[in-house]
């Protein structure tokens, strides 16, 4: 990275991961800016630590544009832009969900996150040695169908593909996305409150939380630090898992540089070829 003090913007800094990330980077002397929708206790804590905060509702276009305008007026030359926003609602079968709520979830989890990126890209720090980094957060669903979570799942998968597209179109920025795994965060409360609407995931969430079958927060933060500290050839355009990928070892970085297809959305079974049978007319 550049030698100057790092400047980071964390959208939804009031999320548990966003707050933990901000506190870690503040200890390093970074300049940290963030947005929040709900004023949790952690918002006051971050203000006391010197974070510059803006209220922003990602379900409201006017709020998003106003916040981006305020951030751009600061002339930040940011090095890291983190999009830590996420909502699982509406939870339930697609046919049972109110479609306006479903579409609003897409707006929060996908569309308006890209709106923020587009608005803030001109303020990136072009003197950053590795190139400025945009970091998104993924969810489940890339390898299976997450029943009852269609809006959340399709938004996260769209973000994964968007990272690859942005990487191809904007070579001076690193775009990457990470799935944190099961972490003890507020987002799981949506599933617990959904009850039967969550289906089997209700019991699974209870089991994970009550038995501490979770990814430690420090592992997520360490993975994020690795991502923002790695060269474009290793991380940009790719989807990583904080809990499953061997991002701590150098061999993974070497393999990623050799294989440009790794950790990207691809069809399964592309190598299978079915021999065409020729039928004769009787």
Q: Characterize the largest beta sheet: strand count, sense, and whether it forms a barrel.
A: 7 strands, parallel
Encode the helix/strand succession as letters: EHEHEHEHEHEHHHHEH
Strand content: 5-15%
List low-pLDDT spans: none
Question: What is the number of beta strands?
Answer: 7
Helices, by number, come to 10
* Count of the separate structural domains: 1
Strand order of the largest sheet: 3-2-1-4-5-6-7
The averaged pLDDT comes out at 93
Report how far the terminal alpha carbons are from each other: 71 Å
What percent of the residues sit in helical stretches (DSSP H or I)? 40-55%
Quaternary form: single chain
Radius of gyration: 20 Å
Backbone shape: globular
Write the layout of secondary structure elements.
Layout: E1 7-11, H1 16-27, E2 31-36, H2 41-48, E3 52-55, H3 61-73, E4 80-83, H4 99-120, E5 133-137, H5 150-169, E6 174-179, H6 188-194, H7 200-210, H8 217-229, H9 232-235, E7 239-241, H10 250-258
Helix pairs in contact: 3-4, 4-5, 6-7
């Amino acid at each position: 990275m550049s030698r100057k003090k790092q400047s980071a913007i964390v959208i939804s800094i009031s999320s548990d991961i966003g707050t933990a990330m901000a506190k870690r980077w503040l200890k390093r002397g970074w300049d940290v800016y963030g947005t929040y929708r709900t004023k949790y206790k952690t918002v006051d804590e971050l203000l006391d630590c010197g974070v510059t905060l803006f209220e922003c509702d990602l379900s409201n276009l006017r709020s998003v544009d106003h916040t981006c305008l305020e951030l751009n007026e600061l002339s930040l030359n940011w090095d890291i832009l983190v999009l830590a926003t996420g909502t699982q609602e509406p939870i339930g079968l697609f046919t049972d969900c109110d479609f306006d709520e479903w579409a609003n979830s897409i707006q929060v989890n996908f569309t308006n996150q890209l709106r923020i990126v587009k608005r803030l890209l001109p303020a990136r720090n072009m003197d950053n040695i590795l190139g400025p980094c945009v970091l998104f957060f993924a969810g489940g669903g890339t390898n299976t169908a997450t029943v009852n979570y269609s809006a959340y799942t399709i938004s996260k998968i769209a973000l994964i593909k968007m990272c690859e597209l942005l990487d191809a179109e904007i070579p001076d920025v690193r775009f990457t996305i990470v799935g944190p795994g099961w972490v003890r965060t507020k987002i799981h409360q949506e599933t617990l409150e959904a009850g039967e609407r969550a289906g089997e995931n209700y019991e699974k969430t209870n089991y994970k939380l009550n038995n501490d079958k979770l990814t430690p927060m420090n592992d997520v933060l360490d993975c994020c630090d690795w991502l923002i500290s790695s060269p474009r050839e290793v991380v940009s355009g790719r989807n990583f898992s904080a809990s499953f990928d061997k991002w701590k070892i150098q061999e993974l970085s070497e393999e990623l540089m050799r294989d440009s297809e790794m950790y990207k959305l691809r069809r399964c079974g592309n190598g299978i070829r079915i021999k065409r049978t020729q039928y004769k007319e009787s």
